[in-house]
Amino acid sequence: MKSKMILAAAFAAISQLAFAGGILTNTNQNIAYNRMMSREAAIGIDGAYYNPAGVAFLSPGHHFSFNWQTAIQSRTIENDYPLFGNNTADNSTHRKFRGKAFAPVLPSVQYAYNWHDFSFQFNGGLIGGGGKCTFDDGLGSFEKIVGETALGAVGLAGAVDQALGQQMFTSPQMFGSDGKYSFNSYMRGNSYYYGFSVGAAYKLNPNMSVFAGVRAVYATGSYYGYVRNIQVGNMPLYKVLDPTKTNSGDIELNCDQKGLGFTPIISVDYRLGRWNFAAKYEFKTRMRLKNESVNQAPSIGNLQDNLGTAVAQTVAAQAMKQGMTQTEALAYGLEYAKNKLGDPRVVGAMGMIKQQFDSKMAEATGEYADGVKVPADIPALLSVGVSYNPVDPLRVNVGFHYFYDKQASAYNHREEKLKRGTMEWTAGAEFDASKRITVSAGWQNTNYGLSEAYMNDKSFVVSSNSVACGARFHLTKRMDLNVAYFHSFYQHKKTTEDVALTSTQTVTYKSDYTRDNNVFGVGVDFNF
């Protein structure tokens, strides 16, 4: 009955589909980055995103870049939990869930017009999200809660039967006594953060330039999922919630989110011989996502009345066999059920289930309730870089990013569970193999400040090392073609959770998170 809590948490996870960069930020905005991973201090049209102050050092005139990326990502979660052995469809205590995210089109555009000491710039692209993720069988946390619900239902059934002095709800025809269960689940979601920035750079002198600009961010997301056909023993859940509706025990989320935010950006670039130094700071983007939802959740309020009705009908049938009239037997059954369900053991078990249900439901569904504005700030970002040109054909870049994740507000202050912000180190080199071809390669290390509490299917990111390779083809004096591929090697994040099933029984729920990521890209640069 608490499954909706996990369903909502899982939607939060699939909404974060960034393929390179921080928790909510895509930094793969140009194929030049994809082929060498480090562009923080490079001078090029891609600097409209990476080093906007440095764009002022390009030649006078128009500079334009159009980029197309395709990203293929998978997410794998392995879980171990003793209660999984009660699943009638699969009695193994181990589960492996694989979600697939595919973004066939990740476009981006950079433009600059350099005039005298000024550079007027535009950058547009998907600065966050960018794909759809699907878990055909739901998640382990779905099943975890269904298993716990089954155990709670069996406990309540046992308390009722003890009060009745006979086996009724724990019989094999109903809930049973061992917590067996079955269910169906599914989830999918997509998220897109469109960013459009404008700004201007100015050369203070031949060696130094500065930039100021602003980015408008429009966010949109769509999430759908369900947990259906929950059955404990041989008792479909709907029969004790609302027997007249076969879907009364089903859980369904159908939520669309939209929001708008703005990001001030400042940048500085300084040249010294064959060296170039650059820094950029993106301020925090205050984002509030407005929900439009049509959700369905089971109502537990009728549980006691429905159990009472079932008891009354059973007792009335027995009384009629003893010679009572139908009217007398029904009245006797109702009074009997009322007295027995008032037993302290039943009242205590019923109250505990309802308290847990109400609190967890309020905690979970608030983020996806219709009309609610959900805080989802994009964290501030500091990037610094150094470029060195030891010989004319060779350029080497190194860089560092820091995302201020703990200062970016999230729903229920989820950001406070992080240990620190995300840190990234980058390094790359490109070499002019000939007048027509430049080859390049690079590396990036992304290290998130994750804690076990932050994971919990709510923010499924794991630290990684990415490697890239590619080439730039000088097709004409005014046109270049960039091609690239990068792959991310993700670490595993393992968590454990102690779950108190009863006052004397505690079991462990284990999770192992990882990802796989491949990005292909092609881009065309024009100078005129």
Note the topology.
Layout: H1 3-14, H2 31-36, E1 61-80, E2 94-115, E3 118-135, H3 140-164, E4 181-205, E5 208-232, E6 235-236, E7 251-272, E8 275-282, E9 288-293, H4 303-321, H5 326-340, H6 344-365, E10 373-375, E11 381-391, E12 394-403, E13 422-432, E14 437-447, E15 464-474, E16 479-490, E17 493-500, E18 506-527
Antiparallel strand pairs: 1-2, 1-18, 2-3, 3-4, 4-5, 5-6, 5-7, 7-8, 7-9, 8-11, 9-10, 11-12, 12-13, 13-14, 14-15, 15-16, 16-18, 17-18
Helix pairs in contact: 1-3, 1-6, 3-6, 4-5
Give an overview in words.
With 528 residues, the protein is an alpha+beta fold. The protein contains six helices and 18 strands. It has helices spanning 3-14, 31-36, 140-164, 303-321, 326-340, 344-365; strands at 61-80, 94-115, 118-135, 181-205, 208-232, 235-236, 251-272, 275-282, 288-293, 373-375, 381-391, 394-403, 422-432, 437-447, 464-474, 479-490, 493-500, 506-527. It has a 14-stranded antiparallel β-barrel. A hairpin with a 2-residue loop joins strand 5 and strand 6 (235-236). Helix 1 runs antiparallel to helix 3 (140-164) and helix 4 (303-321) packs across helix 5. It starts with a helix and ends with a strand. Residues 1-18 have low confidence and may be disordered.
Shape: elongated
Would you tell me the overall average pLDDT?
Answer: 89
Strand content: over 45%
Termini separation = 63 Å
The tally of strands reads 18
Count every helix, treating DSSP H or I runs of 4 or more residues as helices: 6
The major β-sheet equals: 14 strands, antiparallel, barrel
C-alpha Rg, in Å? Answer: 29 Å
Low-confidence stretches: 1-18
Sketch the topology as an H/E string, one letter per element.
HHEEEHEEEEEEHHHEEEEEEEEE
Helical residues, percent = 10-25%
Q: Structural class of the secondary structure composition? A: alpha+beta
Q: How do the strands of the widest beta sheet line up side by side?
A: 1-2-3-4-5-7-8-11-12-13-14-15-16-18
